[in-house]
Amino acid sequence: MPIGTKKLGVLAIAGVEPYQEKPGEEYMNADQLGHFRTILDAWRNQLREEVDRTLNHMQDEAANFPDPVDRAAQEEEFSLELRARDRERKLIKKIEKTLQKIEEDDFGFCDSCGIEIGIRRLEARPTADQCIDCKTLAEIKEKQMAG
Hints:
mainly alpha; Four Helix Bundle (Hemerythrin (Met), subunit A)
């Protein structure tokens, strides 16, 4: 199942059902960490498969068209694919950084203020490294600097 697809009305990332918190459960316990590790591993594997598919597609489809318009169209298609793969490559690095945080037992807490990011936010964005308040503040500052 592709990343972020709806499954029975619930958003499932990388085909993994959302974590069901238990009453009184400790935040970022072994079950929760395992859940997010599963999501991140599956997501990274999906992205790597896309990279392989693109590579195979470009090798199979590469042709030296005599018509300049055909050649330009193919180059544009390849350029768009490579741009998408570059974004995915950066996302893979972010996923690997997040997996490292899980290994170091530093996952699920805001890099800026240290509070819990929250299970629901991490379900929506497993690579989040800031709580919603700090992220909102950072985005406001970014907009002010840009304009």
